[in-house]
Description:
Keywords: Disulfide bond, Glycoprotein, Golgi apparatus, Transferase. Residues 27-192 form the Sulfotransferase domain. Pfam families: Sulfotransfer_1. The structure is a single chain. Helices cover 39% and strands 11% of the residues. It is an alpha+beta fold. The longest helix is centred in the C-terminal third of the chain and has 22 residues, at 175-196.
Amino acid sequence: xxxxxxxxxxxxxxxxxxxxxxxxxxxxxxxxxxxxxxxxxxxxxxxxxxxxxxxxxxxxxxxxxxxxxxxxxxxxxxxxxxxxxxxxxxxxxxxxxxxxxxxxxxxxxxxxxxxxxxxxxxxxxxxxxxxxxxxxxxxxxxxxxxxxxxxxxxxxxxxxxxxxxxxxxxxxxxxxxxxxxxxxxxxxxxxxxxxxxxxxxxx
Length: 203
């Protein structure tokens, strides 16, 4: 980490921290005052997105459905598959709460980052104690990508949109598979809502 001068905030972004068992204790040992921002989205959509990303690199992998179930006829979900396992947010949050108070954590809705980016970033700015600079006027919605783009300051070039790896078309998944996954995640989602004090509306 670079030295942080007075009036500066040093930020480090690694998505796998949230699901890495050793991370909470290590970060706490480094600084108990660390503020943590966790971006989450509907775990079913997240699993499909994860699969889509892998599929783009390895087109020969088995179907989403075959990876999802340990036993399809019995409806047993394979929680050892990382695409499924990562979405068990309540389970991943427990070790963090042993090292950090909930007040040092902000849970950002991935869905609302798309539908209301300025609103979610207002929460981030408030959480970090920053002046509210980013507002609605800093975004426009890119219909092709299906995501908002960030407008840069006047005269400083083109807006910044998410890269090629974002906004890929997801494969079609059978309705029954989606229903089974929603049923599977529902109790974990509800526990996560209780733990964070925020209903993300995934049910």
